[in-house]
Design goal:
- This protein has one domain: Neuraminidase (6 Propeller).
- 5% of the residues lie in helices and 47% in strands.
- The chain has a 4-stranded antiparallel beta sheet with strand order 3-2-1-24, with no helix packed on it. The protein has a 4-stranded antiparallel beta sheet with strand order 4-5-6-7, with no helix packed on it. A 4-stranded antiparallel beta sheet has the order 8-9-10-11, with no helix packed on it.
Length: 313
Amino acid sequence: MNYRILSILLFLAASAFADGRLVFLDIRGGRVLSANPDGSSVQVLVDGRKAGPDGIVVDASAGQMFWTNMGKAKENDGSIERADLDGKNLTVVVPVAATWTPKQLKLVNGKLYWADREGMRIMRSNEDGTHVVTLVETGEGDAARADAKNWCVGIGVDIAGSKIYWTQKGGSNANEGSLRRANLEIPHGQTPANRSDIEVLYDHLPEPIDIDLDLNKHMIYWTDRGDPPRGNTVNRAPMNSAHRPEPEILVRGLNEGIGIALDLAGGRMFFTDLGGSVYSAKLDGSDKKTLLTGQGSLTGIAYFTMPAPQSTH
């Protein structure tokens, strides 16, 4: 077995990860943290990331995690970094200025997908950071950048359905947020800025942030950091519906909700807020638990389990 993977497995074994493991980000402290799904065994894996870590994803088979760094909102200085699951071997994958303000991040079939807030884009690259492309562009220039309705924040990817989903935040508590969908690839002859296949699934949302998808039951889950009664919530809605229902509010009372991660096998979800808490609940929103408090200002979260060892026989 590769020594690096072995050392990571030993690290995770020491963390009692039989029930999976959480990794999450503290944007204020510039930290990548880890914990068991019950909130125990908190560890700081990476510290001193001053560029604003926001979205995180795990490649468990490779023993690696990736996260976005927002940089400064008014400057084109975002980036994506990678490290082993024990925090070692830190590497810049998508270099500074290849993306403006990267937010939520997903890894699907060897491709990184992310939302770029002030860049007003949905973007993709290879897992090693090569071949960065723009899939959607909602605006261009400083005037458009100043309009928060153009800010792309959360992202979900449905490879089987050939769709990408994303949120556009809107102004603070302005009820201008939206949840949108488009084909995975740009229609022939069109551009990221003029593609005709974009659907607005939900509009006039308080401030939608991060997304996760239940591809088995075709449901979209998302956080919203706006004000109550519809904000500071976890929500869900059908991915496909002839008559689109109102979003179902599953959890209320967050302190500016941000990250969300589904554990479909366990029938539960994990979510964070800028107030510094990590929570869990069942997928219907019941049995809400506060796992951690006072952890800084929390943004992205990911849940993962390690793949079963491959037989050598």
